[in-house]
Amino acid sequence: MSAIAEEIQRQKLPFAAIVIGAACVILALLFEWAEPLYFVVILICGIPIIWGAIMGVLEDHDITADVLVSIAIVAAVLIGEYESAADVAVIMQIGAFLEEATVNRANSQLVKLEGLTPNVARVVSGGRDETVPIEKVRLGDTVRIAPGEIIPVDGVVAVGSSSVDTSMLTGESVPVDIAPGDSVSSGTTNMFGSIDVTVDRVGEDATAARMARMLELASANRSRIVRTADRVAVYIVVIALSVAILTYLFTMDAVRAVTVLVVFCPCALILATPTAIMAAAANMSTRGVLVKNGGALEALAGVDTVLMDKTGTLTTGTMSCMGFESTSDVSAEEIAHLVSSLESRSEHPLGKAIAKYGNGNSEVEGFEYLPGQGVKGTVDGRSVVAGNARMMADACPEGLDTARVRGSLAESDGYTVIYAGIDGRTVGIAMVADTVRNGSAATISELRDLGLETIMLTGDNGTVAKKVSSSLGMDDVVWECLPEDKLKTVEAISKDHRTCMIGDGINDAPSLKLADVGISMGGIGSRIARDSSDIVFMKDDVSKLPGVIRLSRRTLLTIKVGIAFSLILNTLAMVMAVMGWMGPVAGALVHNIGSVIVIIAAAMLLKHDCWSDSTQDVPDASPATA
């Protein structure tokens, strides 16, 4: 119920109006002297509803259930049934408050994107560097980026070697080694060596600016999620007004005609959606699932296609060493000990993974990191080198050809390969990979059992992407995806299908925003991805997805049953009002009984068990990235 507490804190004035209104209604019911308090309730709870309905019709040309509620309040006041008007106003405000408590109020991702790149850059000229505003950087300028800094421009490396974290663009956790002649993009992070970059794209053409523009367009192009109650509200308004007019024409009894409007006010219908969504959201919160947009639960029930990012969603997003292989007369155990000891001094993600695997504890002398290549040093009196093939060609050419044959096979299986050299010759390889997340395969199986098509989106190459998607049993896969590629894929599929996108990175944010429902991984994921999504998995547990979909379907069923019950109840009350068998006071009583029944039905969602524990399978140690 934390969402309600947060909403109370944020909306102190509306909440106070509800409390005061409810207190006034109770006092007026108990004591005759307090009946004038009905006017206070109508003023503080009813006027805002009426004004909102008027503005909605005039500005947005949008007829919702609020219109009929407003008509009912005005009609009740006109015939002197102030109690009915007050009851309707308070019930409506409670429903609106509950619904608002589940609505996403964070729409600040565009502001955050402005912080993806620095506001300044160091431009090198005449052997000196000068810090200038980013808007003054021109094509052809040379910009210097120190280790650990975010790259402020798009360009080509002119001087220096390093490794770059490109997860913002590709979502992949393996850093990319760069050397002179390689391209770099704004918003990515220079991890180790200092580099000079010749600028080839600036301003609106730069990568980070295009990302912000894509997110803005995705937000603008996304269809508004229309509540089930609002879809039927137009028909309710037309029917209620028509019956009221006909009643007056046939009976010439204005009180009876106005009573029709009062009794047909859909209080139970109004409460059906917010109470069901609030209960479902509370149920999900106990499983570490945060619902930011209540309307997304209705939309999720109709989804038929689930698009899933790979790294950090279906996989752990953390590199792990899968082992060493010897390609020489040196044992794999000895290679593992020497190389892991050397890598214990490294800050590179691949080096850390190798150090953790081998648990090397020997002292390292003369440690040296060569950006974009690897590391070297002396371990137990032996010269040890670990890095890419380019480094080995210079440092350990003997045995490299044999090791590269085995390395190529490992890479085709999805591993990232680190070559190991000892005393001037290449002796083996270390295999590193991101591993499939616990429960991913079972989750895909459950989604398919629910009748959903599953598609994986990844920045990996085709060979690795196909292997991973096939091992998980997914229906389709799209590989080598940049943010615009993911966005185009979601846009194309959304033309004929109801889509759900689940991801964790900045590169997923535009797609999360464009899909009918966006779900982000809250722990490992970026803040921009969380802000762009409708639902957040706070515990990074993708196995919760089938349960969320099942609960959303049950929630929509509960909403539809509540609306159907409300319509039947109001129709019966309307017939009795037309015949003169029911007055406004009895009508208000019917409203309250119907509302209580709907709330009880929605409350059952709090304990509804839609969660499966079968997804907790054994972790898959197969590689998940190249």
What would your notes on this structure say?
With 626 residues, the chain is an alpha+beta fold. It has a seven-stranded mixed sheet, sandwiched between helices. Strands 2-1-3-9-4-7 form a six-stranded antiparallel sheet, with no helix packed on it. The protein starts with a helix and ends in a 23-residue tail after the last helix.
* Count of alpha/pi helices: 24
Q: What would the average pLDDT be, to the nearest integer?
A: 78
Alpha carbon gyration radius: 31 Å
| Euclidean distance between termini CA atoms | 43 Å
Q: Outline, from the CA principal axes?
A: elongated
**Derived structural class:** alpha+beta
Helical content (DSSP H or I, runs of 4+): 40-55%
- Quick one: biggest sheet? 7 strands, mixed
Q: Ranges with pLDDT <50 over ≥5 residues? A: 1-12, 102-114, 218-226, 614-622
